[in-house]
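Researcher: Please predict.
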Amino acid sequence: MFSFSANSQIDIPGTNLTIEMVKARKIGVLSVQFAGTYNVLSGKDNKRVQVRLKVRSRDGDLSIFDPNKLSLLSDQFNARFSVSEVLFATFFQTRGFQMLTTNDTEKPVFAKYDSSVPNTFDNYTFEGYKDCSIDLNFGTNRKPIIHTIYFRPQNIDKNVLDVYFVVPNELTTGKLYFGDTLISEIDIR
């Protein structure tokens, strides 16, 4: 179970966007997600956390939304976690943001390489916190082929998004940020 301390629209400085956290929850092992083209699993030492956001442009026009600027900060682990999946909140959740990879060699089928789109997760650091991006090994333990995944920004006007993070099982609290703007604090029970 999750609870959160704020439920208001937060203006994002330097953009035409507001973000509101609607709800957050832990995704159970038996939870079925219809993510369409990909689904990042958490493994036995981690869990998946879903955060539902209402993202709106202030003037109703299309505005660029970069999900890579979202992160979940943990004081408990002194860590900053990047997004593992971003989907439009529809019944079947078949449409999401295009997954990109930082590695141009032996790309996975579900991720594209595009050097013109930077991973903006790396643009924001918090002193004393370790950045934890989503690094997937598509090779073997002896010959790893590591891909750091991130997402292509999209133009949106008024959408509800489901954003997922992979975090340690022991994580009990967190703070959701967009860049360096606090969106909400989260207690995980």
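Model: DSSP finds no helices and 16 strands in the chain.
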